[in-house]
Amino acid sequence: MVTAVPAFAAGGSQRAIVLVHGGFVDGSGWEGVYEKLKADGYDVAIVQNPTQSLAGDVAATRAVINAQDKSVILVGHSYGGAVVTEAGNDPKVVGLVYIAAFAPDAGESVATLIANPAPGAPVPPILPPQDGFLMLDKTRFAASFAADVEPGKAAFMAESQVPWGLDALNGAISKPAWKVKQSWYLVATEDKMIPPDAQRAMSKRAGSTVVEVPGSHAIYVSKPGAVAELIEEAAQTAKAAN
């Protein structure tokens, strides 16, 4: 039996995909999404954010964007959504994809977006800052961040956390790219870090094309197929910049 190969995959996509991770983790969590996109013929690059400041992470992301020789679909998970909201103003970027991510407006930061949680909303188990950095309580990491990830992998993610800088948390957006560029948004309906209703509100405000998928905050790890599918939709339908 011969399996049909999508036309865009035969010679590689005309769009490069740049993946941006969020706080407390690094770029290795994108491995499953990376493998699926590569199998479908895409050029894929993964940003390793220092997560010390928003400005530093935007600079790291722009460096990866500039290294691409194609137009870019820029993908952000969680805090990575704030990074792509600012870095997405790069002229190479033709579309933004938010995966259970923050999508701040001008003047907003992750800190302002989480400042007043709705009654009954889950509260992430963020420990008090130490030397300007935040960590999640390891004993509660899996339940809040990665409830549908294989337990051994979730435990490893908890133990291998990357400290998240207060300057990243408090970094404010100057010019939100979603106001001028197309965006897509995957709502993780079982998220215990960013409430699904908050995700819906941000995606509506941004005018995003929205899909909802059952999964935890780490849905990019637990359900890479669904995440890759939305990214490919963006890559195939984003309009070129004028």
UniProtKB/TrEMBL annotation:
<feature type="domain" description="AB hydrolase-1">
    <location>
        <begin position="17"/>
        <end position="229"/>
    </location>
</feature>
<dbReference type="InterPro" id="IPR029058">
    <property type="entry name" value="AB_hydrolase_fold"/>
</dbReference>
<protein>
    <submittedName>
        <fullName>Alpha/beta hydrolase</fullName>
    </submittedName>
</protein>
<dbReference type="InterPro" id="IPR000073">
    <property type="entry name" value="AB_hydrolase_1"/>
</dbReference>
<dbReference type="Pfam" id="PF12697">
    <property type="entry name" value="Abhydrolase_6"/>
</dbReference>
<dbReference type="GO" id="GO:0016787">
    <property type="term" value="F:hydrolase activity"/>
</dbReference>
<keyword id="KW-0378">Hydrolase</keyword>
<dbReference type="InterPro" id="IPR052897">
    <property type="entry name" value="Sec-Metab_Biosynth_Hydrolase"/>
</dbReference>
